[in-house]
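TA notes, week 10

Several of you asked for a full example with nothing omitted. So below is the full record: structure tokens for the whole chain, then the designed sequence directly under it. When grading your own attempts, check the secondary structure regions first.
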């Protein structure tokens, strides 16, 4: 069986502990199509696997919802 997923990588600033990581993971995980969220606290890199390409602004919105900021994101719009 073949399941194809797309991986989106963003960089998030402001995370300082495991609680931050789980907040970000939870918010991004609630986006449509997201199957897994892998957060590296040390670098702020977040790898998101999803069944369809994600809307960058939706990802940024989810991160902001959790209380953090996306600093690197393909096709990010200036706010
Ligand atoms: Cu924290």
């Amino acid at each position: 069986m073949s399941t194809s997923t797309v991986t989106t990588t963003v960089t998030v600033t402001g995370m300082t502990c495991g609680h931050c990581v789980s907040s970000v993971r939870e918010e991004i995980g609630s986006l449509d199509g997201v199957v897994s969220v892998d957060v590296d606290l040390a670098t702020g890199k977040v790898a998101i696997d999803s069944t369809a390409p994600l809307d960058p602004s939706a990802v940024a919105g989810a991160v902001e919802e959790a209380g953090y900021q996306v600093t690197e994101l393909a096709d990010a719009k200036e706010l």
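Residues 18-29 form the longest helix (12 residues). Use that as a sanity check on your answer.
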